Amino acid sequence: METSCAADHSPNDAAERTTVVALDQSEESFHALQWALDTLRFGVSDRLVLVHARTSPLSHATGFGGAGTGYILGTEAVISMERSQEREINAFMDKAMELCREKKVKAVKHVVYGDARDVICEEIQKLNANMLVIGSHGYGAVKRTFLGSVSDYCAHHVKCPLIIVKKPHEKSHLKN
Amino acid sequence: MASQGGDDAAAVALVRRRKVLIAVDESDESIYALSWALENLIVPGRPNDAEEPRVSNLVILLHVQTHPQVFVGPAGPGFYITPEIIDSVKKHQEEISRKVLLRAKKLCDEKHLETETMVAVGDPRDAICEAVEKLAVDYLVIGSHGYGAIKRTFLGSVSDYCAHKAKCPVVIVKKK
């Protein structure tokens, strides 16, 4: 069904191009998506795949209190945590989908369990994506680098073109 | 996003000018990055652009010349750098810049894009990041030689540096 290929082609080509947009709940993430929607030219044969890496609530739970604190989570607790996490995820993913709809860009949601670094790289491979758009948390002037760890990892490991969108701290340099 | 010669109101007739800085050098990766960007990011006339305010793109092609350093060892320089040598090296670099920018500009002209060329001297890492700030570009496109600090990663050192330091979205196109 997908005829997308990683090579470049003319805009009139009917081949579908897939752009993966990595999303989490952060502002940086949404800023990256909005930037892509505003700046890049998405045609009728393009689609965005909004990828969110979801961690199992269990991995958070076992982190509580360290060894031997005796937290035992019953199934109901786990299920309820998963449900509440799902509600949160659906909320921001739906917001993202709405942004795409506003710009009349085809988009689908892929929520996958796992570490963001691996999930993003794997999705790109699976979908044979043409491009990755990823926000960067950046740590500003405090840390040496202005690039978050997930975007840094992806920059090193994906083979497709990628766009790293940092959220500017001051808007002054963007205005003329 | 930089807007030139007009206010930011979403009036249909307004033309927004988007500045894209594309770093080029003699490598094939560089030309590939340029042509990928032209095809996939800057291409005019996408089907769903009809209702959007017209956006024009200005492509700024930047070539960075690295002039060889004069090293003075503990025992003094092993040879004398005469003004003629400096001149000849400079001329050679200018010729390289000319060829590189000509090749790049040709690709842009084929797409009927407004293009400017620019030459900077020094370390490409800093020169590119400085140009980004000085020109207040909307985004930067850079190819990646794909060697990096560790051979198994797919990111070159200049693109890695710019991904960290450039104060605008960075598009990294890796060699095929």
UniProtKB/TrEMBL annotation, chain A:
Residues 18-166 form the UspA domain. PANTHER family: ADENINE NUCLEOTIDE ALPHA HYDROLASES-LIKE SUPERFAMILY PROTEIN (PTHR31964), USPA DOMAIN-CONTAINING PROTEIN (PTHR31964:SF113). InterPro entries: Rossmann-like_a/b/a_fold (IPR014729), Universal_stress_UspA (IPR006015), UspA (IPR006016). It comes from the Eukaryota. This is UspA domain-containing protein. Pfam families: Usp. Gene3D superfamilies: HUPs (3.40.50.620).
From TrEMBL, chain B:
InterPro entries: Rossmann-like_a/b/a_fold (IPR014729), Universal_stress_UspA (IPR006015), UspA (IPR006016). It holds the Pfam family Usp. Residues 17-174 form the UspA domain. It comes from Ceratopteris richardii (Triangle waterfern). This is UspA domain-containing protein.
